[in-house]
Specification:
32% of the residues lie in helices and 17% in strands. With 247 residues, it is an alpha/beta fold. The chain binds fructose -6-phosphate. The site of fructose -6-phosphate (F6R) has 14 residues, from loops.
Amino acid sequence: MRIYEVKDYQEMSRKAANIMFAQMIQKPDSVLGLATGSTPVGIYRQLVEWYQKGDLDFSKIRSVNLDEYKGLSADNDQSYAYFMRKNLFDHVNINPENTNIPNGLEEDAQKECGRYNSVIQELGGIDLQLLGIGNNGHIGFNEPGEVFEAETHCVALTENTIQANARFFEKIEDVPRFAYSMGIKNIMQARSILLVASGESKAEALEKTIYGPISPAVPASILQLHNQVFIVADEAALSLVKERHGL
Ligand code: F6R
């Protein structure tokens, strides 16, 4: 794991965007694994800025998102499909046909999960997977549990995640209870992984991710076994790592 400590959210966004930039320059038809949530917003803003300056080209880029709420349409302003259009896709020259997100409206979970696994496979796997981290150590919607789920699956969100995500909804009852998410194997098969974290609320999860035992109780801890992981995190997110282990 290569850990980059940065000062704050802004620096995290810039550093992480740099790593994505390098990937896109090296391989203009890269398959980017993308994430939603508040952490990547600044990264996407930076990428859009570089695109507008003419420094980046998305015309050949393919993308696969980590997850989507089950039951929300792509037009619902809380869906991850909507988030991606608003924060990135609508502002760059990516071909919408080259973007992939689980279909939240597909009721048949087995069918949708199978379809999504095939999509990833047909793209030839993921070149660079961007990940945020939940304050309980989840990646994608792979919640803490007894086992690592390998492939795309339908997840019952934990109370912790429902509460953490309630800030985006009018009321907590509106937060969907299920989601489709890539599995740990889908993520681990990415050729490189970029995990970003900002703020003190991520400090415990990050410390366990980097130094804890590898366990499905902290899904992100599996990343210790991947040979190309970049972690870009700010001082607050790395505070416990530094306090307990130095950096
Ligand atoms: C989003 C995702 C989640 C988030 C995580 C952190 O696609 O898969 O795992 O990355 O919940 O969310 P934020 O960035 O909002 O703290």
